[in-house]
Amino acid sequence: MEILLSVCIGVGLAAACGFRVFLPCLVLSASSMAGLVELSPGFAWLAGWPALACFAAATLVELAAYLVPWLDNLLDGLAGPLAVIAGILLSAAVIQDPDPLLKWSLVVIAGGGSAGAIQLMTTAWRGLSLAGTGGLANPLVSAGEAGGAVTLSLLAVFLPLAALLFFLLIAGLLFFGLQRLRRRRSKKTPGRKI
User: Is residue 194 part of a domain?
Assistant: First the structure.
């Protein structure tokens, strides 16, 4: 049961990295300092004041930068690989398993995969927002993404199974919403596939 809960925490935090890279790191650092989350061996540095201060500063800069139209699109290009790496690291920090092969398989597939999936879908949404509104709606998209990162991160710490279910729900909604928008746009522009 302990491995299941740690996987749910890891996947929830990793998926939150797909929305914002540093906010889930900040939540994990603070919650591990408060004794709410047990860290895997080798990740004790996350529960220190230097890590907390660095993640807090990075989170504030990231949240502010995503509110600037056009800069947010540039950041999305950088955030893709960083989100996957952060998702892998945060999953590794919380998944408790003595078998390294199982742990790192779960970390890469579930942690990196969930972060990458959310990041790809949010990048697509931001692209649609840019194309449809010239970037004017991007701050609203950014606020929604930040809300998703906060919600998933807190659920991962306090209700790990709910975090996994929330991730699956959000991923499904993002995916089917994108499919519907693509179908609608392809109907408006005959002869052109998107």
Answer: no
Crossing angle, helix 22-33 and helix 2-19, to 10 degrees? 140
Q: Is the dihedral of CA 85, 151, 3, 117 positive or negative?
A: negative
Helix (H, G, I), strand (E, B) or coil at 190: coil
Contact present, 93 and 39 (Cβ < 8 Å): yes
Report residue 187 as tokens.
């109907």
Residues 94, 44 contacting (CB under 8 angstroms): no
What residues have CB less than 8 Å from 4, skipping those under 6 apart? none
Q: Select from 15, 5, 35, 31 the least CA-distant residue to 160.
A: 5
Residue 30 lies in a domain: yes
Say if 111 falls within a structural domain.
yes
Kindly state the tokens that stand for 159: 């209700």
Condensed to tens digits (0 to 9), the pLDDT of residues 19-61 reads 999 999 999 999 999 999 999 999 999 999 999 999 999 999 9
What is the structure's pLDDT at 192? 55
Tokens for 60?
């504030």
Provide the number of structural domains found in the chain: 1
The model's pTM: 0.87
For residue 93, is it left (φ>0), alpha (ψ between -120 and 50) or beta? alpha
State the Cα–Cα distance between residues 122 and 115, nearest whole angstrom: 11
CA distance 44 to 52: 12
Q: Where does 34-70 have alpha helices with state H?
A: 49-65
Q: Is residue 157, in this structure, part of any structural domain at all?
A: yes
